[in-house]
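Take one record.
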Amino acid sequence: MLGRTQGFGVFQDRSGAVRRRFSVELDGLIDDGVLVLTEDFTFDDGERERRVWRISCVGEHGYEARADDIIGAAKGRVRGGELRWSYLFSLKVGSRRFRVRFDERFVQVGQDLLVNEARISKFGIRVGQTTLVFKRRN
């Protein structure tokens, strides 16, 4: 995701009810062989959040990524036109933080269009999911 990309998404609880809507602006650049991806989120309640990923290739089809609120490293593989990630995340809810797992799938559906689905779980129990659509900006 080099350059500028815009995304729109929702968070749904485990019953499927939409609990939050958000937009995200991404800016990607290569720094010493590593993809640095800056995400700036704006939520429907006005909250803002920034995450900076550092993504590296590992082997022929693998990737590893780190960010401040990721516990350890995100690990992913490209297979059959999909990228799948899995990682532990320190999720902020109000003034508290919870350790949850994200299992994500990215699918390119057009030249400049990408869909992301993430299942969020705690202790192996699904607590919600996010769905995002990304469009590259010119």
The first strand starts at residue 3 and ends at 13. Strands lie at 3-13, 18-31, 34-43, 48-58, 62-66, 70-79, 82-93, 96-110, 113-122, 125-136.
